Amino acid sequence: MYVCLCEGVTDTQIRDAVYEGCCSYREVRGTLGIASQCGKCACLAKQVVRETIAEVQSSQASLAYPAGFAAA
């Protein structure tokens, strides 16, 4: 689904940006350019970012070892 019509950004692209390392709405906005023109997409874009970050955090919490774990 298109979230930002001005920049042609979909919810999948927003989710991918979070999966690739963006940790906040501000970072996603800087990476994809969402909400930089008319701003009508900001609320939905923030919601997608929040949901995706929560999903990533919960999946990391279910790992036997956190993602930051380094074997010696």
TrEMBL record:
Entries under Gene3D superfamilies matching the protein: BFD-like [2Fe-2S]-binding domain (1.10.10.1100)
GO molecular function: 2 iron, 2 sulfur cluster binding; metal ion binding
UniProt name for this protein: Bacterioferritin-associated ferredoxin
Keywords for this protein: 2Fe-2S, Electron transport, Iron, Iron-sulfur, Metal-binding, Transport
Family assignment from sequence similarity: Belongs to the Bfd family.
Domain (BFD-like [2Fe-2S]-binding) ranges: 2-49
Cofactor(s) this protein cannot do without: [2Fe-2S] cluster
InterPro entries xrefs: BFD-associated_ferredoxin, BFD-like_2Fe2S-bd_dom, BFD-like_2Fe2S-bd_dom_sf
Entry-linked PANTHER family: BACTERIOFERRITIN-ASSOCIATED FERREDOXIN (PTHR37424)
Native source species: Ectopseudomonas guguanensis
Protein origin, superkingdom: Bacteria
